[in-house]
Structure prediction request, 225 residues.
Amino acid sequence: MTEREFFNNNAVEVDGIRFEIFVSKMVVVVPMPSKPKSNHDTSVKLYVRITNNRSNSYCFSFHHNFVPEILAADGQNTNAGYQADGIGYPHVFDFHLIKPGKSVMVFPNARIGWDRKHHNKKKREQTLLLSLPFTNREFLGFPLKNLGNYSIRLKYEVTNESVQYYHYLINEEWSRLYNEDRQNYCSDEEILYYHYLMEEESFDAMWTGQVFTPYVEFCVVDTQS
Prediction:
C-alpha cells in the first residue's frame, strides 16, 4: 500500500493506474445434478477494467498475471487446486497498450458447478467447484465448502523477472515468428497487432508491480433450496 493508493467499493487506484472488478452475477444458481453422471455448471464472468490516469502509456500483460483469492462467509480462505492440459505460453494478444485516459477490460470466464469425481453410489457426494482460467491451458479450481455467500478479489502482479522473459520472447522468438515464419503459423490479425505493439514501443513501457483489487461478493444457491 502506498500513500498514493486509494479504494472505493470495487476499485483501487495505484499511482494513477485504476483497477476495477465486477462480477456478472451477484446470485449464481447452480442446480444439483439429478443423475450421477449429469453435470450442470454456471458461467460467471469476472470483469476487470484497467484505466490509465497517468500521462504516459503503459503495456499490461494478461498472461497468468491474475490470481484470485476467495473467502467463505466465515472469513476462511479457499485454497486453489491446479489443473492443466498443457503449458500455457504467452500470446501476442495477452499484451495490451493502454494510452493516457484510456481503459482496457478483460473478463476471465469462471464456472461454478458440481464436481462428479467424488460420487458414491450409496451416498451422493458432490463437491462444489469454482474454476477459473489461469492461462489458455491452465486452470485454478476452488472447492467451495457449501452453498452461500463468498467474496472474491484478484491479485495482479507483473515482476521484473517476468518482463525480462517477455523481452526475450518478443525480441527472439516472436521476431522470427511474425517476420520469417508468419505465412505458416500466424494470422493476419496477429501479425498486424504485433507490429502495432512494436511501432508503439509498447514492450519498453511494461507496467510492473502488485495490486490487490477490493473484494466483491457473490452468492451461490441451489434451485432446490
